[in-house]
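Table S4 entry, tRNA (guanine(10)-N(2))-methyltransferase.
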Amino acid sequence: MSVQEIHGIFQFADDFFPEEDGVNVFVLPDYVPKTVFPQWYLEEQDDPSSVFKARLDHLYYTGKYDEACELGHEHINIYCTGPLAWAMGRYLVRFAQIREDFRLDELRAICLTSPFWVAHFENDEEVRRVLSRAILIREIVELLAEGDSVDSLVACTRTLPTEYYEPYKTFAFRFVVDDYMRKICLEEQVALINKFSFMPLLGPVSMTDAKVTFSIHCDAVAGRNYLGRLIGPGSRDLIDRFNLKKRGYLGTTSMDSELSLVMCNLACVSSGNLVYDPFVGTGSLLCTSAFFGGFPIGSDIDGRQMRGSDGRSIQSNMRQYNVENRFIGGCVFDILQHPWRDGFLVDAILTDPPYGVRAGAKKIGCKYESPPSYSCRLSAEETAERYPKTIPYEMVDLAQDLHQFALKFLRIGGRLVYWYPMEINEDESRSTKDQLLSVLPKVDGIEIVSVIFQQCRLFDRWLVTFERTC
Ligand SMILES: C[S@@+](CC[C@H](N)C(=O)[O-])C[C@H]1O[C@@H](n2cnc3c(N)ncnc32)[C@H](O)[C@@H]1O
């Protein structure tokens, strides 16, 4: 057995000491003086699934570790004394004040009414990896101290061992204040920052060239205050990069840049992935997929959308974003009459299917019982065959077809992400999750991962994520 995971972290009062009997294993991060924090205690975990897991990579074990191994303890609880939050790889995620319903799902795939969420990451590098993709995260800071009041935050900060500051001691540094739901004026901010002047930082203060930024976050709603060391900002700058207003080629239904980026994250699009949009339109989702390293393919029943005009097309957008070499291409066909051979597999399908209000879905059919005669020499049957008419395509059928398509052409583990529009109820109430679940297709092997609600003016729509499981 190897002790690989922490199951639950509890802080006890400073006078807490582990039981004398039983298995006591002391675990200390190597940078914490044992004299300061000697009280770590591990014991068997009854219900490991009920508590969160974090890795113990950067910790080492002392005490009765061998004894614990002999007893075959698979799961362990760590009880610690003192403010060891920072030693446990805790980080504070600060979300952007937008699209609250999407937050947790976005983070799960690559968080809550409060824009703060305490998360566990292995190390700063892992945090940076997440930040390089996360659209709905404003920033992540290493969580150093927290408290219900400013005084308790300061008290908690005072217990940080001086060793913590060692790597940053001589760096140019700065403090910033992040006030959530209560405006803290400049004077107050300065007074707040000055409360932390005891921190042993010897470098110069620099607002412009700081090598380390400490941030004080005050959440007036939850009544919590945090002190953190900034690891970095999220990737919200990408929203502006893909801003529709700056895009060369657009259509009436081009997908908003922020949502295109979030959809790529939900679909776990990553380098080398083959990504397919079967209702590609002007290719917004292809642009962001290619940006994240994917190789996108699109198709649409209407070739005009893809081709564009006056030198502006999906291709020119790809060029604009410098991802032209990743774009595999576009094909014109009805998704129900697709040319894909058996065995063709894509890593992700993400799409914005057509729907009534903006772009009614059509499928190839025959509108007329007996086709009209055209001024050409084709027979009526030939006309019907060669110049097929389109007929309305209901969303329930479209979704069903999409799921069947995914079952055949999505690789196992691949994701299907799309928008499902819902009408507002007759009593003008908004659609509910239960209503959505009752209409979503149930196809074995295509399992639901998440549903996210978005209220539009005339209708509702749900961003649904599925995964192919078998
Ligand atoms: C909402 S738009 C997609 C917009 C696209 N995401 C963009 O950024 O421009 C839906 C697209 O589905 C296409 N479409 C409608 N019925 C289709 C079908 N049966 N097969 C393939 N494409 C279809 C429409 O021509 C339209 O371009």
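The two ends are 32 Å apart (CA to CA).
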